[in-house]
Design a protein that fits this description.
By secondary structure, this protein is an all-alpha fold. The chain has three helices and no strands.
Amino acid sequence: MTDRWPEIDENIVRHRIMSAMMILREAFGYGVREAIDAFDARYRLLRETRPDDFTVSSEEYGRHFYS
């Protein structure tokens, strides 16, 4: 399996939530709950380590997103 984290990270910082979730599920075989947990952990890590890369503020991120 190739390393999909750069692709996942790019989707997360660009506010492409569904794309990141789909890759997490495909790459790791996660169910929905596992993918949400993995997304949340990676989102928090990226907010700490790459805050300037995000295209929306933390207050706006995820607003109006319903799965």
